[in-house]
Please model this.
Amino acid sequence: MRAQLGRDMRGVVSIARRCGCGRPAVVRTAPRLEDGTPFPTSLYLTLPWLTLELSRVEGTGRMAELTERIAQEPELAAAYRRAHERYLARRAEIGEAEEVAHVSAGGMPTRVKCLHALAGQALAEGPGVNPIADEVLAGIEGAAPELVCRCEETEEER
Ligand SMILES: [Zn+2]
Model:
């Protein structure tokens, strides 16, 4: 993880998903760091190639489009809210941080603000949990339905 992020990852509880090559892809982290700082993103994407791909998607204006769709499609909105509630419930299993008790991640339940956080949930929990992340991941080569390793490709680009 240090090699992936360029720093130590704090508060890691477990590896929630691995890349095809076995490197950590999503880590589950405690909602409060050792120094007491609340850390609401409890499913944290660490995989460089996928982080890069999601940043590219974020750069296209896709998040505003998806947020608009949540506002207009009640079924999508309901599924996205369920993803939010599941996020909070799963996080409560590993700890509490009252300052962020109702804050999940990525803009849930009504907005799309960080695809990395949403993808972290989808990759850790499997398809059908977070419809927005499922849709975005489906458009990224090697990200779904299985996580295929593209680590070497990312290293070449550096
Ligand atoms: Zn890999």
Q: What stands out?
A: The chain is about 45% helix and 10% strand. Residues 31 and 134 are 24 Å apart (CA to CA).
